[in-house]
Amino acid sequence: MKIQLVYFGRPREQLKISGETAEIPESLTTLAELLAWLRTRGEAWACELADNRVRCAINQEFSGLASRIGDRDEVAIFSPISGG
Amino acid sequence: MSISIQESDFDVAAEMAALRHSSAKIGALVSFVGLVRDFSNEGRIENIFLEHYSGMTEKALGKIIGEAAARWNLLGSRVIHRIGPLQPNEQIVLVATAAAHRREAFASCEFIIDYLKTAAPFWKREQTDRGGTWLETRDSDLQRMDHWARGE
Prior knowledge:
A: 84 residues, Ubiquitin-like (UB roll), B: 152 residues, Aldehyde Oxidoreductase, domain 3, 5-stranded antiparallel beta sheet, 4-stranded mixed beta sheet, 4 helices
């Protein structure tokens, strides 16, 4: 399954990545599973993408960790928002 | 309803005049302008940096203004949010609302800025003399949204 990943806020800065196209295992069905998979990339990823530190959006809608991901989805991973 | 995300500064007087001239039914205009402070819990702020999620931001703000229009009889609105590097005392955000009467204009303006704080994808990084920090959604802002959700 292929998804588009985009990063904002603290993880974008700390992981030095703004976006990527990722080929992910078909077994990953939820945001929580995707985050767990990304955390295996290394210590910085494990730290920055802890469940309680990040928020997510799927196809530009805020989405909880139990939300399902699908092929070609745009998944955004970011620190809690702070505008205004 | 008009939304702009931009690096450049804005002229509040010009924006209010444009909103005022959009309809002769308007009896009340309210504006909120958010500014960069020069202090935080971390120390003296040297500058801030704002980024956003292009595409989602416009959708989220459109939804927020749509909800305001469903609650109050809005005759017009204007939202401008700046991105990029900003210095203390600079303008960050403008929310302006127009209605026939002041109660609707005040309430809708406050609703839009409260909602923006918790539902529009912006990220603010503060640079102080002690280093940089990404700010996170404040509990007090989330509580403001609870207050609106209860219909107060």
